[in-house]
Amino acid sequence: MKYLPGGASSNLRGFPVYTPHPIYIKRGKGCKCYDVDGNEYIDYQAAYGALILGHCHPKVTEAVLEQIHSGTMFGIASELEFEAAEQLNRMVPSVEMVRWCCSGTEATMTAMRLARGYTGKDKIIKFEGHYHGSHDYVCCGYHPNPSDWGSRISPSTQRLAFSTGVPEDTLKSVITIPWNDLELLEKVIRRHKDEIGGVITEPIMGNGGMIFPRKGYLEGMRELTEDNEIVLIFDEVVTGFRVARGGASEYLGVRPDLHTFGKAIANGYPISVFGGKKEIMSQIKPGGAYHSGTYAGNPLGLAAALATMKELDNKAAYKRMYWIGEKLINGLRKAAERADEKIFIPGFAGFFQIYFTDKTDFYEWRDVAGNIGASKYNSFVWELYKRGVYMHPSVLERIHLTMAHSEDDVEQTVAVAEEAFKAAKARGAEWTLPAGL
After folding, report:
1. 235 is catalytic
2. If phi over 0 gives left and psi between -120 and 50 gives alpha, with beta otherwise, what is residue 370?
3. DSSP code, position 152
4. Where are the beta strands (DSSP E) in 86-141?
5. Is it the case that residue 199 has pLDDT exceeding 60?
6. What digits encode the pLDDT tens for the residues 333-354?
7. How confident is the model at residue 156 (pLDDT cuts 50, 70, 90)?
8. Quick check: 397 pLDDT over 60?
């Protein structure tokens, strides 16, 4: 930790999340990764879900290598921007126009700016437990402690910030409320409709508990935003191309005004995109909403995105991944039973999590906080590391399948999971979730 705070380049992959020490990965292939000490792991972190095709997928690698020989950076428009946008529109028809950028943080930040510029209204609604990157406007209400919850209907204040250095005036333009409560959302919109320019949501709550929307919730959100001239933004940096070929809007049957995508769109290469209705996206222009960046539309990222989307434009591939995923989930449940451990697995075969609890009714962050066995999960994961299985040590992250995982990988994982459940129980809790995660 001499040169890197926490020993890493992100809070979520350094100390104290990884206690007693971070794990340093040297290489990966397919669904396997290898650390600097030569240990092999079956990888279920999959770069936080980005590696949907697995490490070093040959078609993606080939596309990037070909582009390297043609040029790595131009700082000017290229055909790849159009080709990748066309492929994205083919898979997600509600994305009529796009802008390419570099990270999920940049995508959500600019989408929120566009919503405010398009409507002329300055406030944005976001939800407790939802993560939209690390720009100032979303550094609030991520994983608030019970002592900070306050009223369910009041706007966020500085106490909900999960980072120092965020101006309080910035947070005053964000209204943070619990998710999955349509009546509450309607009350807040009715109270602030002349101030609210956008609502941003994870369509499936993947960063603060694996929680799906209640029946009718997103449909009601769509109706409320349309009726009150509010831009609805689906943050699909996690769900995009993971829950379905067309993302969450296809899987759940609700179309927002704007989407943000990252992670799986390029199988781990650093690129993201936001896009949606042509009427709204056309406001990105001189005198309108501003978006620019030297690395926006980088050719290497675009080559990876185009190759990845072409591979994912195949419903049979998803069907196989979900079949493998269901075998893993069912196997983990049986392994826990044999180890006499109570668990609940929320989510579905594309991405899910293991909670050490007998509670099963989770609808929002306030249900999740303190009820999912963070210490037990961390002990379980470190026992898995010893047995060649890699998952993120925080129970608030996710377990991800890739299209490279096989039945043999699942069988091996289930076999060692029973051992890990038993060993973790014997070891006892040695870890607590760091504040702010």
Report:
1. yes
2. left
3. S
4. 97-101, 123-127
5. yes
6. 999 999 999 999 999 888 999 9
7. very low
8. yes
Catalytic residue among 32, 123, 126, 263: 263
Amino acid at 373: G
Give me the amino acid identity at 394: S
- Residue 2 CA to residue 4 CA, distance in Å, equals 6
Q: Which amino acid is at 160?
A: L
- In this structure, the number of other CB atoms found within 10 A of the CB of residue 389 comes to 21
3-state DSSP: the chain helix, strand, coil percent, rounded to 5? 40, 15, 45
The predicted structure's pLDDT at residue 224: 98
What are the φ/ψ torsions at residue 284 (nearest 5 degrees)?
-80, 100
Q: Is 279 exposed, middle or buried (0-12, 13-18, 19+ CB in 10 A)?
A: exposed
Residue type, 191: R
Active site (annotated) includes residue 217: no
All residues at 6 or more sequence positions from 48 whose CB lies less than 8 Å from its CB, including other chains: 12, 238, 263, 392, 397, 398, 400
Q: Which residues, at least 6 apart from 101, have a Cβ–Cβ distance to it below 8 Å?
A: 107, 110, 271, 272, 273, 274, 291, 293, 296
Question: 164 falls in which pLDDT band (50, 70, 90)?
Answer: confident
- Selecting among 41, 131, 137, 217, the annotated active-site residue is 131
Q: Is 408 a catalytic residue?
A: no
The tokens of 288 are what? 């309108």
**Cα gap 315→360, rounded to integer Å:** 30
Helix (H) or strand (E) holding 79: helix 79-91
What pLDDT score was predicted for residue 158? 41
Q: How far is CA 318 from CA 65, 305, 409, in A?
A: 26, 17, 17
* 235, 269, 355, 390: the active-site residue: 235
What structural domains and CATH numbers belong to the chain? 5-56+315-427 (3.90.1150.10), 58-312 (3.40.640.10)
